[in-house]
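Lecture notes, part 5. Sequence design as translation. It can be helpful to think of inverse folding as translation between two languages: the language of shapes and the language of residues. The source text, in structure tokens, appears below.
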């Protein structure tokens, strides 16, 4: 489940505009998408309310008001997540977003203040292990730029000095404002009404498509059948939990459903049927799958050994 986070410390940089357009683009492709509002101002909430009253194409965009400290669990059935984050995000809150995200978009306008704010945000993000290792794709999007091309040239020169790609530039247009007033995006308008705006956005969407295909597939394994105690997480080694908890998904299924052929081949977890691990243990359902996103093989091996020690009758206790 790709998670696309729109991040910039400076308010008014176009984060909500960018997030709503990415979410609608995914919905037009038939994807079940959640627009998570991590901003305390709840910028997307009135937009979603207006959108619900419109007849629009594509899957409905699900809204979800989240907190930067608790954004791991999206609603059931969602396959893509777009996060609209608050201005001033830094420290552990910014790091937490980087833990969950697969793609980070940094929107900024044509001003010294925008560039300085984005530079500070980028510097902090690059210190994060997932960004530094390339597991998170980062791209700059120029927002509300003038049509002459001068602002775009300034932006690209700045980005080149910082070795960060400018993945798209979106020119200033009243179409974005008038569409948002009705809970729409320029993608919901007839194509002939905003052809230049659509062309700008299509460059961004092409880059996102490429970035999504570059996300490593999850590693899946099937440990021995058994139950995990309800307080097993509290007994886990700290180094295992800290690395794995951000992307660990425990998928429970009755053992009787698994055929020998199914047990022999890897399977991808279905995000629409992810139950709560503690609830599965209480119900006596054995844990049959473990998925650890793109985490290192060493971490996966540690987690497997730890779960083995938790299982009844294990020799590793």
């Amino acid at each position: 489940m790709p998670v696309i986070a729109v991040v910039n410390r400076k308010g008014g940089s176009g984060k909500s505009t960018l997030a709503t357009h990415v979410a609608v683009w995914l919905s037009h492709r038939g994807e079940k998408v959640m627009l998570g509002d991590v901003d305390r101002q709840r910028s997307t909430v009135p937009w979603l309310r207006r959108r619900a009253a419109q007849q629009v194409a594509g899957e409905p965009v699900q809204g979800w008001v989240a907190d930067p400290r608790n954004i791991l669990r999206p609603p059931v059935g969602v396959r893509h997540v777009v996060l609209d984050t608050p201005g001033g995000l830094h420290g552990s809150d910014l790091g937490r977003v980087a833990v969950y995200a697969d793609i980070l978009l940094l929107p900024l306008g044509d001003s010294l203040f925008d560039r300085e704010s984005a530079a500070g945000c980028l510097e902090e993000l690059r210190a994060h292990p997932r960004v530094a290792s390339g597991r998170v794709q980062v791209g700059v999007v120029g927002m509300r730029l003038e049509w002459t091309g001068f602002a775009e040239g300034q932006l690209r020169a700045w980005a080149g000095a910082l070795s960060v790609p400018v993945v798209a530039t979106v020119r200033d247009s009243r179409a974005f404002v008038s569409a948002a007033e009705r809970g729409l995006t320029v993608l919901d308008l007839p194509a002939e009404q905003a052809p230049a705006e659509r062309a700008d956005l299509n460059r961004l969407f092409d880059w996102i498509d490429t970035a999504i295909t570059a996300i490593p597939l999850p590693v899946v394994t099937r440990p021995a059948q058994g139950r995990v105690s309800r307080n097993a997480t509290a007994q886990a080694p700290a180094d295992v939990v800290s690395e794995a908890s951000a992307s660990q998904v425990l998928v429970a299924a009755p053992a009787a459903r698994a055929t020998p052929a199914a047990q022999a081949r890897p399977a991808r977890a279905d995000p629409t049927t992810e139950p709560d691990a503690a609830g599965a243990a209480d119900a006596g359902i054995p844990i049959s799958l473990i998925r650890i996103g793109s985490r290192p093989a060493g971490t996966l091996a540690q987690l497997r050994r730890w779960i083995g020690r938790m299982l009844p009758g294990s020799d590793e206790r």
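The translated text above is only one of many valid answers, since several sequences can fold into similar shapes. Residues 195-213 form the longest helix (19 residues).
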